[in-house]
Amino acid sequence: MVELRLLQALVFQAQKELAQALAALEKALVLGRPAGLVRTFLDEGEPLAKLLYQAKVRQLGAGYPAELLSGMDQTSRPAPPPAQLLIEPLTLREIEVLRLIEAGCSNQDIAARLVLSLPTVKRHISNIYNKLGAANRAQAIARGRELKLFE
């Protein structure tokens, strides 16, 4: 049953259905943790690592995604940089907007600096929140630091 849920999660991920992918992954985590299944998750490799990272960011699976990710890091293959763990990476413009958010700029300041309309800035911020799994500016900044987007 765990393998089935993992496959469902990977299919949803390939279809860019993140919410459904995470729901299927969470069911696999709930079933797999009590049974001590680790290899089942680790064998899925990089695509599942991206989903596990998203689950960790959203605090799904009661810490199990973090345990599994650390197990993946200890395998023979090198761990990918954190930014590669995003299912959909931020665009260059979204990174610019995130850096201005980190600098303490308001939406109006960002619009003026980047010569954008206010609705466009708000759309970029919404996309950033969705991609990083953040609910607010502070979480987006924290995740951006974790992913080394400000270096």
General form: elongated
Question: Structural class, please?
Answer: mainly alpha
Question: What share of residues are in beta strands?
Answer: under 5%
End-to-end separation: 42 Å
Outline the low-pLDDT stretches. 75-81
Largest sheet: none
- Strand elements, count: 0
Helix content range: 55-70%
Please tell me about this protein's structure.
The protein has 151 residues and is an all-alpha fold. The protein has 9 helices and no strands. The protein has helices at residues 2-14, 18-32, 39-42, 45-57, 64-73, 92-102, 107-114, 118-132, 137-146. Mean pLDDT is 81; it is low at 75-81.
Give the structure's gist in a few sentences.
By secondary structure, the protein is mainly α. 66% of the residues lie in helices and 0% in strands. The chain has helices at residues 2-14, 18-32, 39-42, 45-57, 64-73, 92-102, 107-114, 118-132, 137-146.
Which helices and strands occur, and which strands form pairs?
Blueprint lengths: L1 H13 L3 H15 L6 H4 L2 H13 L6 H10 L18 H11 L4 H8 L3 H15 L4 H10 L5
Helix pairs in contact: 1-2, 2-4, 4-5, 6-8, 6-9, 7-8
What labels describe this entry?
Arc Repressor Mutant, subunit A, 2 domains
